[in-house]
C-alpha cells in the first residue's frame, strides 16, 4: 500500500486559497471550521512564503497518542482518521498537533467544543464508504473512488502535492534539481521525522 | 517619469551640498546611499540593488547561510556574477526572495521552543501558527509525565494508607466515648465542606478518567459506553468547576482564622501527630495535619481552578503555549490533590473512630475532642461559661 502524504512546494504556492475553498466546498465543511488553510510567513519581507497546511497524517500521530477515548485509527494508506461517534471534544488533540489540524465546532456552554473535525485526506471516516451518513459526518470519500484529495488535485500551480510519499518526494526532488532551489518539504521533519533530500 | 524630475533635482542639490561647505562632518559618507536609494525605485537599474541584502534576508528567514542545498551555493555566487555587467541581469530567482529551509526552520523552532507562524486570512488567530513542534512536548507530558506522576501519587497513597490501616487498624479514642457531645462544625460549615467535597470527587474521577480511563475502563466497558461516560464526565467537570470554586472560597473565609500556622504545629509534627507515638499533642481547633489539608485545598484548589478556567474558555486569555501550560499545571496539581484528599478521606472515615461525626452530624464526642483538640475544647468551654446565658446549657459542660 501507499504511504499517503501532503507536500507543499512553497516556492510555487501563490496563496490563492483555492485549496481551502475546494476543501470547504467538497466536504460542505461548517462555518468556522478550516480543515485546510494557507499561512504566509515573512509576509511582506524577503523570504516570504505561503504554505498550504492541513493534517499531515503523521507517522506515530500525536493526536492519536493523547486522545483520552482512543478514537483515532490509521488506514492501510497511513491516513489518520477518527471516529466522531467516539470523540468527546476534549481538545487534547489540538494541543498535541504540531500543525493545528483539529478543528472544533463551538457548541454548548463556555468554550464547549463539539466533536473534532479535521482533514480526512478525502478518505471519509469509519462509516460505510460514500454513504450519506459518512458524507454528513466526514465529507466526501474520494480515496474510495480512486481519487486523490481535491485540494492538491485542483492546485493551479501544482504547489500542493498529494499521493504516495515516495512519489511526491520524487516529483519535488526533480523540480528542485531543475530550477535549482527549494525550501524543502514543510512539516515533514515534524510529521514523518524525515525530509526530502535533494 | 514624473517622479524622476524631483528626484534628480534632489540628487543635484545633495551632490552640490559639500561644495557649499560641510555642515556635518559625516554627511557625504552617510548621504551617498540615501541619494541612491530612490533610484532603483524609479527603475533606473535593478542590478544595483545591494548584494548585502541577500544574507540579511536569509537571516530573517532563520535559515543558516551554510545550508547544504545547492540553492544556498547559488545564493553566494549570484551577486558576484552580477557585478560586472551594466545590463539588468536575470536575477537568480531565489536570491532576491531570501532562501528558506523548511527542515532547518522546524529544527530551530523545536530546539528554541518557538512556533513557526505567519499571517492568515481567516479570522482564527490559532490558524496562523504553521508548525508548533511543542505539541510533542505536551504529548510527552500528558502521556508519560502525568500518567506516571498521577499513577505513583494515587496508587502510592493508597498503598501507604493500606499499610497504615494494617499496622494500626482503626484509631480509637483512648478514654473511650464520653457519651456527651460538643458542636464541632455548624450547618453552614458542613454544607460548604460537602459542596466542595462532592464536586471534588466528581471532578477528580472525571479528570482521572481522561488520563487513565482508556487503559482501565475502556477495555472493560467498550468504546461506545466509555465515550458516553467520558462525555458526561466532561460536562460534569465543566459545570462542577463553579460550585467547587465557590466552596474553596467559602472554606477559606470560614476557617482561615483557625488555620494560621503556629509553634504548636511544630510540636504536633515532631510527635507525629499522635499517629506514630502514643501521646496526643496539644492542638487548637485544627492541628497541623488539618492545617496542611486546609492549605493544600485552598492553594491547590485555587491554582487548579484558575488553570481550569483557562482551559474551559480556550484561547480567550492565552495562546497555545499558555493553554499547554495551563493543562500541565492543572493535571499535575490535580493528581497531587487527589492523593492528598485520599489521606484526608481515610482519616475522616474508616481511619479514625469518631472523626466522621465532625462533618456528619457536626457533634463530636467530648473525649474525642479533648484528645485531639484539647485547646479548642478549653476555649469552647471557657466561651460557654462566659457567654451562654441560662444554666441548662452551661452546667453540663462546665462540670467537666
Automatic annotation (TrEMBL), chain A:
<keyword id="KW-0479">Metal-binding</keyword>
<keyword id="KW-0408">Iron</keyword>
<dbReference type="InterPro" id="IPR017896">
    <property type="entry name" value="4Fe4S_Fe-S-bd"/>
</dbReference>
<dbReference type="InterPro" id="IPR017900">
    <property type="entry name" value="4Fe4S_Fe_S_CS"/>
</dbReference>
<keyword id="KW-0411">Iron-sulfur</keyword>
<protein>
    <submittedName>
        <fullName>4Fe-4S dicluster domain-containing protein</fullName>
    </submittedName>
</protein>
<feature type="domain" description="4Fe-4S ferredoxin-type">
    <location>
        <begin position="4"/>
        <end position="34"/>
    </location>
</feature>
<dbReference type="InterPro" id="IPR050954">
    <property type="entry name" value="ET_IronSulfur_Cluster-Binding"/>
</dbReference>
<dbReference type="Pfam" id="PF12837">
    <property type="entry name" value="Fer4_6"/>
</dbReference>
<keyword id="KW-0004">4Fe-4S</keyword>
<feature type="domain" description="4Fe-4S ferredoxin-type">
    <location>
        <begin position="78"/>
        <end position="107"/>
    </location>
</feature>
TrEMBL record, chain B:
<feature type="transmembrane region" description="Helical">
    <location>
        <begin position="146"/>
        <end position="166"/>
    </location>
</feature>
<keyword id="KW-0408">Iron</keyword>
<keyword id="KW-0249">Electron transport</keyword>
<keyword id="KW-0813">Transport</keyword>
<keyword id="KW-1133">Transmembrane helix</keyword>
<feature type="domain" description="Cytochrome b561 bacterial/Ni-hydrogenase">
    <location>
        <begin position="184"/>
        <end position="359"/>
    </location>
</feature>
<comment type="similarity">
    <text>Belongs to the formate dehydrogenase gamma subunit family.</text>
</comment>
<keyword id="KW-0812">Transmembrane</keyword>
<feature type="compositionally biased region" description="Low complexity">
    <location>
        <begin position="21"/>
        <end position="38"/>
    </location>
</feature>
<dbReference type="InterPro" id="IPR011577">
    <property type="entry name" value="Cyt_b561_bac/Ni-Hgenase"/>
</dbReference>
<feature type="transmembrane region" description="Helical">
    <location>
        <begin position="292"/>
        <end position="313"/>
    </location>
</feature>
<protein>
    <submittedName>
        <fullName>Formate dehydrogenase subunit gamma</fullName>
    </submittedName>
</protein>
<keyword id="KW-0349">Heme</keyword>
<dbReference type="InterPro" id="IPR006471">
    <property type="entry name" value="Formate_DH_gsu"/>
</dbReference>
<dbReference type="InterPro" id="IPR016174">
    <property type="entry name" value="Di-haem_cyt_TM"/>
</dbReference>
<feature type="compositionally biased region" description="Low complexity">
    <location>
        <begin position="58"/>
        <end position="81"/>
    </location>
</feature>
<keyword id="KW-1003">Cell membrane</keyword>
<keyword id="KW-0479">Metal-binding</keyword>
<feature type="signal peptide">
    <location>
        <begin position="1"/>
        <end position="21"/>
    </location>
</feature>
<feature type="transmembrane region" description="Helical">
    <location>
        <begin position="325"/>
        <end position="347"/>
    </location>
</feature>
<dbReference type="Pfam" id="PF01292">
    <property type="entry name" value="Ni_hydr_CYTB"/>
</dbReference>
<dbReference type="InterPro" id="IPR051817">
    <property type="entry name" value="FDH_cytochrome_b556_subunit"/>
</dbReference>
Amino acid at each position: 500500500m501507499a504511504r499517503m502524504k501532503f507536500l507543499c512546494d512553497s516556492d510555487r504556492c501563490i496563496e490563492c486559497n483555492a485549496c481551502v475553498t475546494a476543501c470547504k466546498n467538497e466536504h460542505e465543511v461548517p462555518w468556522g471550521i478550516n480543515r485546510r488553510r494557507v499561512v504566509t510567513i515573512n509576509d511582506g519581507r524577503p523570504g516570504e512564503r505561503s504554505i498550504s497546511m492541513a493534517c499531515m497524517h503523521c507517522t506515530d500521530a500525536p493526536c492519536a497518542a493523547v486522545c483520552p477515548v482512543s478514537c483515532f485509527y490509521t488506514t492501510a494508506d497511513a491516513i489518520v482518521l477518527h471516529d466522531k461517534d467516539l470523540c468527546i471534544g476534549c481538545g487534547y488533540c489540538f494541543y498535541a498537533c504540531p500543525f493545528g489540524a483539529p478543528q472544533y465546532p463551538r457548541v454548548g456552554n463556555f468554550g464547549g467544543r463539539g466533536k473534532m473535525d479535521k482533514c480526512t485526506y478525502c478518505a471519509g471516516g469509519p462509516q460505510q464508504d460514500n454513504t450519506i451518513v459518512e458524507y454528513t459526518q466526514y465529507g466526501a470519500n474520494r480515496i474510495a473512488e480512486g481519487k486523490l484529495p481535491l485540494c492538491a488535485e485542483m492546485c493551479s500551480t501544482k504547489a500542493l502535492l498529494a499521493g504516495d510519499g515516495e512519489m511526491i518526494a520524487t516529483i519535488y526532488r526533480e523540480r528542485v534539481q531543475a530550477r535549482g532551489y527549494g525550501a524543502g518539504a514543510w512539516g515533514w521533519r515534524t510529521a514523518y521525522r524525515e525530509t526530502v533530500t535533494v | 517619469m514624473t517622479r524622476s524630475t524631483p528626484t534628480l533635482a534632489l540628487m543635484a542639490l545633495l551632490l552640490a551640498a559639500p561644495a557649499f561647505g560641510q555642515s556635518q562632518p559625516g554627511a557625504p559618507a552617510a548621504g551617498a546611499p540615501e541619494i541612491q536609494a530612490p533610484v532603483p525605485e524609479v527603475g533606473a537599474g535593478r542590478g544595483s540593488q545591494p548584494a548585502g541584502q541577500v544574507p540579511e534576508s536569509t537571516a530573517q528567514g532563520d535559515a543558516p547561510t551554510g545550508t547544504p542545498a545547492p540553492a544556498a551555493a547559488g545564493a553566494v555566487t549570484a551577486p558576484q556574477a552580477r557585478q560586472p555587467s551594466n545590463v539588468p541581469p536575470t536575477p537568480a530567482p531565489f536570491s532576491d526572495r531570501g532562501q528558506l529551509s523548511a527542515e532547518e526552520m522546524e529544527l530551530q523552532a523545536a530546539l528554541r521552543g518557538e512556533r513557526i507562524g505567519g499571517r492568515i486570512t481567516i479570522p482564527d488567530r490559532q490558524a496562523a501558527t504553521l508548525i508548533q513542534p511543542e505539541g510533542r512536548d505536551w504529548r510527552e507530558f500528558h502521556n508519560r509525565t502525568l500518567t506516571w506522576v498521577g499513577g505513583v501519587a494515587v496508587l502510592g497513597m493508597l498503598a501507604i494508607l493500606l499499610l497504615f490501616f494494617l499496622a494500626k487498624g482503626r484509631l480509637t479514642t483512648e478514654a473511650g466515648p464520653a457519651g456527651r457531645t460538643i458542636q464541632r462544625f455548624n450547618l453552614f460549615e458542613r454544607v460548604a465542606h460537602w459542596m466542595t467535597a462532592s464536586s471534588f470527587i466528581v471532578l477528580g474521577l472525571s479528570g482521572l478518567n481522561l488520563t487513565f480511563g482508556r487503559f482501565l475502563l475502556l477495555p472493560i466497558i467498550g468504546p461506545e459506553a466509555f465515550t458516553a461516560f467520558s462525555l458526561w464526565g466532561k460536562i460534569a467537570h465543566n459545570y462542577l468547576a463553579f460550585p467547587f470554586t465557590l466552596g474553596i472560597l467559602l472554606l477559606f473565609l470560614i476557617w482561615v482564622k483557625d488555620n494560621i500556622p503556629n509553634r504548636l504545629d511544630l510540636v504536633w509534627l515532631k510527635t507525629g501527630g499522635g499517629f506514630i507515638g502514643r501521646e496526643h499533642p496539644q492542638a487548637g481547633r485544627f492541628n497541623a495535619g488539618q492545617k496542611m489539608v486546609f492549605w493544600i485545598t485552598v492553594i491547590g484548589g485555587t491554582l487548579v481552578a484558575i488553570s481550569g478556567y483557562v482551559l474551559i474558555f480556550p484561547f480567550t486569555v492565552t495562546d497555545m503555549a499558555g493553554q499547554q501550560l495551563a493543562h500541565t499545571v492543572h493535571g499535575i496539581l490535580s493528581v497531587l490533590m487527589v492523593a492528598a484528599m485520599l489521606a484526608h478521606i481515610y482519616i475522616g472515615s474508616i481511619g479514625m473512630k469518631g472523626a466522621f461525626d465532625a462533618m456528619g452530624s457536626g457533634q463530636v464526642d467530648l473525649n474525642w475532642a479533648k484528645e485531639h483538640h484539647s485547646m479548642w475544647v478549653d476555649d469552647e468551654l471557657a466561651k460557654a461559661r462566659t457567654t451562654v446565658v441560662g444554666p441548662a446549657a452551661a452546667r453540663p459542660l462546665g462540670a467537666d
